[in-house]
Amino acid sequence: MGKNKKVTFKVSGMHCNGCSASIGKALSRLEGIEHAEADFQKGIADVAYNEKAIEKEKIIETIEDLGYKVEGES
Ligand SMILES: [Cu+2]
Predict the structure, then answer these.
(1) Is the per-residue pLDDT at 2 higher than 80?
(2) 1 C-alpha to center of ligand 1: Å?
(3) What is the pTM of this model?
(4) Closest of 21, 24, 27 to residue 53, by C-alpha
(5) Which listed residue, 5, 62, 64, 65, has the most CB atoms within 10 A of its CB?
(6) Cα of 52 to ligand 1 centre, how many Å?
């Protein structure tokens, strides 16, 4: 196993549980993601990933491809 990293992204554009669920589902499908969970009320996505298996840019891209915007990290 490689090195695990935990990041909390600030995500705008989520407005219901369906939004946060679709982000969590899409990220969980990616190789290298250990855990992914979004919270629309807080406007965040918590992601634990293996740095050697996936780049942070790919995670951001996946969220933004769904139509949401990653504003930064918290
Ligand atoms: Cu929604």
Answers:
(1) no
(2) 34
(3) 0.94
(4) 27
(5) 62
(6) 32
